[in-house]
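Worked Example 4.2. Consider the chain below.
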Amino acid sequence: MSEHYHYAEGAIHHDHKQVLHIDQVNGGDVGKLLGAFFKQDAEEAEVVEEVPTASKTASKAGRPRKAGKKIMKSFIYQAWTEEETNMRLQSLFFGLLQLKWIAEDTKQKSFLSIFSGEETTCRVVWTGEINTLAELFKELVSRKQYVKLPEGESIWVMVNARFWDKEGNHEFGNDRLRSTSTPTGSKETIDLLVKIMNPDLPLESLREMMQSQR
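Applying the procedure from the previous section yields the following structure tokens:
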């Protein structure tokens, strides 16, 4: 269980104050994210592959690395149980695939590894806009604090270390990530992705809300 949350063990956690503005999300995006939930359901029974560590190859093996400080750390995400942690990360993964915000050949185990809290060499190719990536992590890390940073690292150092730009072989750069503007057309979709990572919001409730808006 994450140290960020403090509830009695075995309690059922529902955030009744959570307002879901699903009606403000683009209908096509709702459909894509709902498809991600069903995709996650279909693979739920499968054994989740071993999360790669520093000894594993990067998600884009053979692609050149930009010279500079090599960051081997990963983000830290923990829900109430290991099973729920995997479910939420898988839902986020499939959602980003459906939205085409990450490369279509991204491996699930590589994606999960960048939230494992363990050392990793994996990087995910971000095919969406840079301000969308920056806003997503501002919400997850800085505002909602569902995702934690490894000790001694800043948000932009970590985002830059774990994501490539859409060309697949270049870093975004800390300054470029830091100076992005708030996206307008995708803000509600980002908020929906962030809700997937809220351990107090049952995934079933979120899925039912999306189904009602299709």
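The mean pLDDT is 78. The longest helix spans residues 82-99. Compare this with Example 4.1 before moving on.
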